[in-house]
Design brief:
The chain has 265 residues and is an alpha+beta fold. 44% of the residues lie in helices and 16% in strands. It is built from seven helices and ten strands.
């Protein structure tokens, strides 16, 4: 594995691994104990609903795949390998048939694709029907948990609990895909870390971590993720704030920090 180039304060290494369907798959292993798989999967769906259904159906195979891959890499028995937490989608829209308000609505739907899918169908996630998508594109769609971080004339961008969608209108001025991925890798790694602290509490344990990843580590992480840097662009600030708000990470960092501080108090 090689050291990763993203946020240097959150030490990690990465390596390419094989995935049966992804164009590219990189495993990021963070020194704090979290592993994140980054899959790149280009798609040209006939409709947003098709993409939404694929997204939910792929969960059924990607989560056990991740567990099996970690088991093979660690050479561990299946019972000793933790279950993967979740899959988060980042959509980079390169083209589409929409314009005006419909284009904006399409990005909103990408950030919250569950509105296009019947997740309780007997045979697994199924499309709600083309009429639903057509109606939403025609009349508009909003959700209280969706946060915009686009800039007029530069990009259209939305973050939600289950995904992030971005469309660049000016390649020279918009965020890059690497900037979005780096932010998400950092946020998701810390989300999983704080989830482990939460799990210890729910299991009736007094949570503890190695000193270098204790409450001071989380305090520093919170400051880095919630405070604008002097030379940070406004677009980057908007992206980071939107992803932090919709992921709920700020609250999780505070709760985990308090729990770990109590353990050493």
């Amino acid at each position: 594995m090689r050291p990763s180039a993203h946020d240097e304060w959150l030490e990690s290494s990465s390596a390419r691994v094989d995935h049966p369907e992804a164009q590219q798959c990189v495993l990021h292993v963070f020194a704090c104990g979290v592993a994140v798989f980054h899959l790149v999967q280009p798609h040209k769906p006939a409709a947003l609903t098709d993409l939404a259904v694929w997204r939910y159906r792929s969960y059924a195979s990607d989560l056990p795949w991740a567990r099996d891959k970690l088991r093979d890499l660690l050479d561990e028995e299946s019972a000793r390998v933790p279950n993967p937490e979740y899959v988060l989608s980042l959509y980079w829209l390169t083209s589409g048939p929409w314009s005006g308000d419909a284009h904006d609505t399409a990005l909103r739907l990408l950030s919250t694709p569950s509105v296009l899918v019947d997740r309780g169908a007997p045979d697994g996630p199924a499309p709600l029907g083309g009429a639903v998508e057509e109606s939403l594109l025609a009349t508009g769609f909003d959700h209280p948990d969706i946060v915009s971080f686009g800039v007029r004339g530069v990009s259209t961008a939305y973050a939600g609990w289950s995904g992030v969608a971005y469309a660049s209108h000016s390649r020279e001025r918009s965020l890059t895909i690497d900037e979005l991925v780096t932010c998400e890798l950092t946020v998701q790694a810390l989300w999983c870390f704080t989830r482990q602290v939460q799990q210890m509490i729910e299991d009736g344990q007094d949570p503890s971590m190695p000193e270098q990843y204790g409450w001071r580590f989380l305090r520093a992480a919170s400051s880095r993720l919630t405070t604008a840097r002097a030379q940070e662009t406004a677009q980057h600030v908007l992206m980071r704030e939107a992803i932090m708000n919709t992921s709920g990470l700020a609250e999780r960092l505070r709760a985990a920090q308090d729990a770990l501080r109590e353990g050493v108090g």
